[in-house]
Amino acid sequence: MKFHKTAAVTFAALAVVSLGACNRGDTSGGAGPGGKPIVIGLAVANLQADFFNQIKQSVDAEAKAKGVEVQVSDAGGESATQVNQIQDFITRQVSAIIYIPAGASAASVPVKAAERANIPVIAVDRNAEGAPGKTFIATDSVAAAKELGDWVIKQKNSKGNIAILQGQVGTTPQVDRQKGFEEALKSAPGMKIIAESATQRWSQDEGFAKAQDIIQAHPDVNVFWGQADAIALGASQAVANANMNPKPLVVGFDGDQAGIQAIRDGKLDATMVQQTQLMGRMAVDSALDIINGKQVPAEQLQKAFLLTKSDKQKADQYLETHP
């Protein structure tokens, strides 16, 4: 997808907020080479999503513990807004940028701009095609989606009609989750994908509307997979409204607070819980390592944990302390 130059000069409002005061007395990370105070810019795709908020909270806590200042921008899901926000970080000469792209469109633009300014970029959850940052921290979504697919196959005894409600097409998590789930289905020819429908915002209302359409077109659907918990929750609502009997299996991905609670309440059958708190800490620590001249792996993929409605104790544990 091509990014239109005019979008970069839109009237996108900058939402840069200082979250932590720089503790100059903390030598563990508060000052970089030459004693210059470290300031990390955190460019978030959309703070309305609990998943991204979890990462932000973890980044904030880890930065505070290391005596580092964090400035946060919220793109509200708009790539053009985020391009402007990261340009503002560059103008402010932040020490590093933790980057969660708002979409596939123009995702590489901020990385290239930061590189020209010698500001390292730590990509989290989504990677910019063709312009990767110094490191990429994310869930191993291919492996996680395959594990979820294997579980679905087992629940349906290798026979079923699947509807996939996709996330924003072309983003790293959407591509990898699709790949992993389809790898699982190769072992079960009796499992058929009968419908696929993409969302733009990974949202519950989109999941609800698209699931409604699929139920009308394919009343024999017996598995809904929402590539995010919010999408799956929308599908669950559509299934309930349609009084489908037998009730289709509804599974998600992310393990955000609403998704875990829905598992606990039996509204979703399963999800994959991502280690959002861990990823936030890793992003800060990787930024500090890079600033201080240390090498970090180009890719740091983390395991996700299968959570099903039969394991309410584990759901309670995740609700109390998210991994």
Describe the structure.
The protein is an alpha/beta fold. It has two domains: about 5-135, Rossmann fold; about 140-275 and about 305-320, 3-Layer(aba) Sandwich (Rossmann fold). It is about 40% helix and about 20% strand. It has ten helices and 13 strands. The chain has helices spanning about 50-65, 80-90, 110-115, 140-155, 170-185, 205-215, 230-240, 255-265, 275-290, 310-320; strands spanning about 15-20, 40-45, 70-75, 95-100, 120-125, 135-140, 160-165, 190-200, 225, 250, 270-275, 300, 305-310. The protein has a seven-stranded mixed sheet, with helices on both faces. It has a four-stranded parallel sheet with strand order 8-7-9-10, with helices on both faces. A two-stranded antiparallel ribbon has the order 11-13. Strand 7 (about 160-165), helix 5 (about 170-185) and strand 8 (about 190-200) form a beta-alpha-beta unit. Helix 1 (about 50-65) packs across helix 9 (about 275-290), helix 2 (about 80-90) runs parallel beside helix 3 (about 110-115) and helix 6 (about 205-215) crosses helix 7. It is elongated, with a radius of gyration of 20 Å. The two termini are about 35 Å apart. Residues about 1-30 have low confidence and may be disordered.
